Amino acid sequence: MRLNFRWKLFLGFFGFALVVAGLLVAWLLTEISSGRLFPGSPPLTAEIRNRLLHFLLWALLILAGVSIPPALWIASRLNRPLRLLDEGMRRLAQGQLDTTVRRIRTYDEFEPVIDHFNRMVSDLAALERRVQDRTKDLQQLLAERDRFLELSLDLICLAGADGYFKEVNPAFPRVLGYSLEDLTLRPFMDFVHPDDAAATRRQFEGLIRGESTLFFVNRFRCADGSHKWLEWSAAPVPDKQLIFAIARDVTDRKRGEEAERALIATRLEFQIARDIQLSLSPSSAPATEGFDIAGASHPATEVGGDYFDYLPMRGGRLGLVIGDVTGHGLGPALVMASTRTCLRSLASASYGLEEILERANKLLYQSTPDNCFVTLALLQLDAAARRFRYVSCGHSTGYLLDGDGSIKARLHSTAPPLGCLAELGVDSCPEFSLETGDVLLMLTDGVIEAESPGNQFFGDQRALEVLRANLHAPAGAIVEALHRAAVDFSQGGPLQDDVTSLVVKVGPLPQGS
After folding, report:
1. Where in the chain is the domain with CATH 3.30.450.20?
2. What is the dotted CATH code of the domain comprising 152-249?
3. Is 503 helix (H, G, I), strand (E, B) or coil?
4. pTM above 0.85, yes or no
5. What is the pLDDT of residues 194-213, one digit of tens each?
6. Can you give the C-alpha Rg of the chain in angstroms?
7. How far is CA 55 from CA 48, 50, 52, 375, in A?
8. Per residue in 360-382, is it b (16+ CB within 10 Å) or e — as a string?
């Protein structure tokens, strides 16, 4: 049978009292019976001895009864600190770390035991508060981590050595369009662009060997079938066969880089085309006795569609050409170069003025798009006879002025632009005589249509005013004055078209003529 400690104490003290009382009774009985307790007393009779035995037994019973309360009190007193410690331990085991044992005076080793217990409980309470604070901090850190992973624009993941994503943050579905299940149930190599698969596999094998990866770029397929450029930084997790990786969507950057490369290539192409075009443009007019001839072309962009040239023609005559291809830029510049080559080839073959333009028209009609045409004026100057003939294929009106600046003739269009019709049909070429002091002016519409901030055009009249203001200047100075006036008229705004002008000044007759 199991007994509590206090009852064991009680039985121990009570049994000890009974043993002491029994021994005392047995000693008294022995001493009385032998006459040693009361020397000289008569011997005890059997009746007296029996009465004395009954008396001692009753005395023993009374003594046993009297010893019960002290035994109970002693047992309770000795058991009290144990009971208090037991209760404290039970409350402590239930998580009541604020438990303390009431300090009692026992004047023995139980007092320091109780003090140690209370200090231990106090330390545990302090430890619990620290644990709670650390737990709260940890929970806050975990919440912040989860919030960071959720709101991060970067793609963050854990991948296994088996080639599967183990965990991915919400940026993956946002960027790629797949669900979390789609991303984790398929090997991640399934999402890599086929052209990037080999390089990605080599990087992955290096990570498995313990090598880190920085700024590796590949393409991932999105749910809609498009591809995103991702820039990866990854490192292996030691001893866990895991890879921690962060990716950034650099699609816009890659597109910008590609656009920049394309722009650089385009600029290079334009620069090459500009250099070629400048090399094709005549640096100066051929020396022609009795004439001052100059021309210049200023493209609105890197390359232009305007054109002027000097062509040696049969009979020692000089061809003066000014033209304008529709639009401006690389395409018109190529058409211009083709036109120049064609006219030079035809002029060197000693064709007449009409035939040169008819053949050039046929070639341009066959080799250019339907929406592309060339306005062009070709003048055939006979310097010796001081005469010229011209054909204007849809080109802007030219002007012949005398030495006082009065208009002697307007050189209107005489035929359709080149490249519009299969047959040009040049019927006649007007012919004009030239006198000393005459000035011939040919322009492209880039001069005439130069626009001011108030949406006004420069116009023919302003061009003629510039010419009259510089009537006695060299032809080259007049050309530059026209360009400068058109630029000033736009007041810093961009010119909308190429600006080209050609000026011929008739000087005095050579001596001896």
Report:
1. 152-249
2. 3.30.450.20
3. strand
4. no
5. 999 999 999 999 999 989 98
6. 60
7. 10, 9, 5, 159
8. bbbbbbeebeeebbbbbbbbbbb
